[in-house]
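Look over this one:
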Amino acid sequence: MNGHRLKLLREVRKKRALRVRKTLRGSAGRPRLSVHKSLLHIRAQLIDDEKGITLGAASTLSKIGGGTRGRRSKEGARLVGEKIAEIAKAQGIDRVIFDRGRFKYHGLVEELAESSRRSGLKF
């Protein structure tokens, strides 16, 4: 790919993320559950936008999956969803605002969301 195409692709992704995120604001009582996928891993964060702090985070980078089975896979996304729900419950949070960012609600993002719902988070 040439440089111009990559720059255009980055701009399109940024616009998509902003379009999704412009109406979402997390608070201490109902934080934003932000999801990010990379080529190898999937991450989730609980963010209080009013104070600008992260309340908790889970990722396949941490040792939640035990070995390579926790990497970017549906099983890894399921484990991250359960872990982020556990972190939220420990802080007394049961309702969140789901922020998929620039990623479609499909595959790994959907698996993470559904597993966190099954673990008790409401959104």
The longest strand covers residues 42-48.
